[in-house]
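Backbone-to-sequence.
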């Protein structure tokens, strides 16, 4: 289970990195574009390893939980968004979803 969780986290992190590089790319001939392209290629191998270990439903739930958690963290840390009560409630709900998914084993 821990290895699967690490794989999904790595998948989310690399995909998020690739998204930011694609947004920074001004065209196909830029370094940012090709870094993003190669990053997405790496995510396919991470996805393959993850799908061999866990069920589809578990992966989808964990992907959503971790990507939402990462977006909350990045919005506060990188973009200086305020950590409001709404974000706190969202974080608590993500934690609750994580506990529910973990308890499903």
């Amino acid at each position: 289970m821990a290895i699967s969780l690490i794989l999904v986290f790595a998948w989310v992190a690399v995909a998020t990195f690739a998204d930011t590089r694609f947004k920074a790319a001004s065209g196909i001939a830029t370094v940012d574009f090709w870094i993003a392209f190669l990053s997405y290629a790496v995510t396919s191998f991470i996805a393959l390893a993850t799908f061999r270990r866990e069920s589809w439903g578990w992966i989808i739930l964990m992907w959503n939980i971790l990507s939402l958690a990462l977006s909350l963290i990045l919005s506060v840390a990188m973009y200086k968004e305020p950590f409001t009560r709404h974000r706190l409630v969202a974080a608590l709900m993500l934690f609750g979803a994580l506990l529910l998914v973990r308890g499903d084993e």
